[in-house]
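Reviewer 2 asked us to include a model.

Predict the structure of this chain.
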Amino acid sequence: MKENPATMSAVIGYFANVCGWRRWAVAFFAGAGAALSMAPFYFFPLLVAGYTILAVFIDASKKQKRPRFSAFIAGWWFGFGYFLLGIYWMAFSFFVQADEFAWMAPFAITALPAFLALFTAAASALSCAFWPHGWRRIIFFTVIFASFEFLRGHVLTGLPWNLSGQALAGAAIWAQTAAWYGAYGLSFVVILICVLPMLGVSDAGNNFNWKKGVLPPVIAIAFLLLVGWLRLIGIESGPQKEISLRVVQPNISQREKIDPSFWGENFNKQLSLSQSTNSNDHNLIIIWPENGVPLLDESQRAMTILATSLPEKSVLVAGAVRRTNANNGAQSFYNSISIASPVGDSLLITGQYDKHHLVPFGEYLPFFGILDAVGLAQLTPYGDAGFARGEGPATFKIAGAEFALLICYEAIFPGEIYPKGQRPDGIITVTNDAWFGDSSGPRQHLDQARLRSIESGLPMARSANTGISAVIDAKGRIIEKLPLYERGKIDAPLPRKLSQTLYGVVGDWLFGAMCLVGLIVSRTRKK
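Predicted model (structure tokens):
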């Protein structure tokens, strides 16, 4: 290969010099293409191309009359394309009750990406404001964009969906280093790899050195692959504590799930999948998905049926909705998990976990007074302002082992699995992605759950109403799963947990150190 192929230099030169609406269009399609690096497509080269194009735009913005504004607009269009294609599936939820909410879909599917794109826009403008030369711009770009992904995961309760590092979560071998520095650290590494081609782009933005621009990212990807392979071939352990898992996937449509007239039928579907005895006399944990039995503790008939129908030595861990009544008569509803065991002819509820990281506008309404005044209070289920918030992460003893419990949305947040100092033996996640149809959403959600196992070194049992249910080992490998829209169950032993991971000890501090060192290196000039 020639060192400076004319075609590549011409392409780089075009991106560097394109202006006006054409630059916005290129940025939009570069961002949309980058979103295809996530599940279920995993076109990682498009993420590399997208970030490289954006970095070229920031380079070229220095020549504009208003360089920071130019970089801001290019970054916004990139982010808008990325999030529009990356979370398009959220619009599906508005068509479950189409007669009431379908009209909101176009506004919601554009408003949220437009807001999230502000993080990319701000990162682009800040990068442009302090843009160094040569290889230091690559480090600086990485630090700024990784930091803004961290901010996106925390500002206004946070939405760390489709972090750059998630592009590697489709196969466990690529994501093993998340055990060191978590999802944000993995994003740092992925962004760095994606802009390494800038090593081959001259500061003028009109020339490309093939050897400098291609070999470094290839070597970095090969190193990640080697590290992942070495970690996965480590000594494997058998199941722990002789615990069997039965993960139930009833495949109930969302319209039937929220219709009280179907609750009895839904209950029977889940019960029929739970009854067969195949646990080898081990302690059996049966897991039902999110909102599997609404108001279980208020239905004596349901509790009696469960007590007499569930297998012996079993514990039911079921998504539920529970209600509390205050002294003044006010009611509060919680999106919960109930832990229950048959004792004779009765069902004993031994623990209840309440979801604490709620979905804004889906489970609770920020600015409720304003939205209620304009007639949008019906967006949330149960009560006037939606679900009440639980106290926080917690662990529960179930069938002789300790488990952290997560409900749906909570599984997307790194480092929020269990209270500090209470490391459990495994994670149980219940979710309901039926709102989002046969789309990218449920598949992306599964990838984030896998990252939580890698980060923590803990196995996970995941029950999803319509899929994708899975048993995941402590290195993020899927032991067994049920595909979308298939009714069935998974019977599997609980995989053994690993020793505490580095990320489990230091959390996101290592990511912070990476950003700090990167910032110092990128701002240090040769004398």
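Residues 105-129 form the longest helix (25 residues). DSSP finds 16 helices and twelve strands in the chain. We have added this to the supplementary material.
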